[in-house]
Amino acid sequence: MSSNVAPATPVKSTGLHVGEASPGVAKRDPILIANQVRRQFGGLTAVDVEHLEIPRHAITALIGPNGAGKTTLFNLLTGFDTANTGTWSFNGKSLAGVSAFKVARMGLIRTFQLTKALSLLTVMDNMKLGSTQQLGEKLWASVFPMLWRKKESEIEEQALDLLARFNLDSKKDDYAASLSGGQRKLLEMARALMTKPEFVMLDEPMAGVNPALTQSLLEHILNLKKAGMTVLFVEHDMHMVRHIADWVIVMAEGKVIAEGSPDEVMKNPAVVDAYLGSHQDIDLGTVTGRITLPKIGKGK
Amino acid sequence: MDFLGILNSTVGFVIDPVTIAFSLAALGLAVHFGFAGLLNMGMAGFMALGAYGYAIGILTFGLPWYIAAFLGPLAAIVFALILGIPTLRLRGDYLAIVTIAAAEIMRLLFLTSTFGPITGSADGLSGHNSGSFWADNPLPEGQYDFGPFRGTELDWWVRIVGFLILCVAVAIVWLLVNSPWGRVLKGIREDEDAVRSLGKNVFAYKMQALIIGGVLGALGGLVLAMGQNVNPNQYVTSITFYIWTALLLGGAATVFGPLAGAVIFWVIQAFIGLLMPALAAEGLLLGLSSIQAAQIKFILVGIALVLIVVFRPQGIFGNKKELTFVK
Question: What's the CATH number for B3-326?
Answer without folding.
Answer: 1.10.3470
